[in-house]
Amino acid sequence: MTGGDARLRGRRVTVRVPASSANLGPGFDTLGLALAYYDELEVAVRDEPGATVEVHGVGAGEVPTDASNLIVRSIAHLFADRGIELPGLDLVARNVIPHGSGMGSSAAAIVGGLMAARGLLDGIVDIDGDELLRLATELEGHPDNVAPALFGGLTIAWTTPEGPRHKRLTVHRGVSLLVAAPDSVTVSTALARSLQPESVPHEDAIFNVSRSALLIAALIQSPELLFAATEDKLHQTYRASAMPATSALIEQLRAEGFAAVVSGAGPSVLVLCSDPAQRVEAAAVIERQSTTPWTVHMLAVDFKGATVVAHPAEVVA
Ligand code: HSE
Hints:
Low-confidence stretches: none
Strand content: 25-35%
CATH class of the largest domain: Alpha Beta
Helix content: 25-40%
Bound molecules: L-homoserine
Order of helices and strands: EEEHEHHHEEEHHHHHEEHEE
Number of domains: 2
Shape: globular
Radius of gyration: 20 Å
CATH architecture of the largest domain: 2-Layer Sandwich
Structural class: alpha+beta
Largest sheet: 7 strands, mixed
């Protein structure tokens, strides 16, 4: 092994990381749900320096396959944080989460990289959940997508002078959901964020405080309140011009009584349902409208967050 910590030699890990939906309507930059839809990656330490990257599925032929790859940068971020020299790496990514769709693909890449790094460093350094959330938030910019990808379930994330923190909650069994992703439209989070105003009216802030408090109750205890609890005045209207088909579909779904919101920064639509039959009805509404082709993902909530499996070291003498 040329350079690097000899204890890392031959180490290899496999990571599975869930998609996520952030904001959930009123919970801008705060609430997120982990979705049972997973990107997988395998990372092996190799003797030669540098990184090789193989991407299968979503992003193949599009995302960088050198050291600028987001997963590689996330692994490097954790090593740098701990002052450990980054070894040579072979990375294979198998992706299903669509990119630029509001289903947490960049959070999955960041969390996947950090979990891989933690797995590779097992027994060498200890990294707890708060530290993972801090590192992930440094890379993503806000904690609401990375928290559910890391910890699973419904997460409330907030920032403190000491760094971001989270509370994980278990979603009521009666809640079922779907995510409708437009087949050929993407919106970058940077564009969506550029449409946000510097400040908002006080009454709009109060509106969202009440709805997001109600949304926690709806998601963990009273799913029948989901429709009232998913109203928002802090982000969706400001961003509507960047995703007109998304806004039109949400308007249509809400007019028919479904708790539809923008998933993350869009353009996917998240529909939170109080029973599986309602979810089938929502899917039928989406199929009926013909302006934009949507792929409907009927998903369960992921309860575990990202998981890592370490493989026995394969050291060639
Ligand atoms: N809270 C973030 C936003 C989620 O809406 O900008 C997207 O990463």
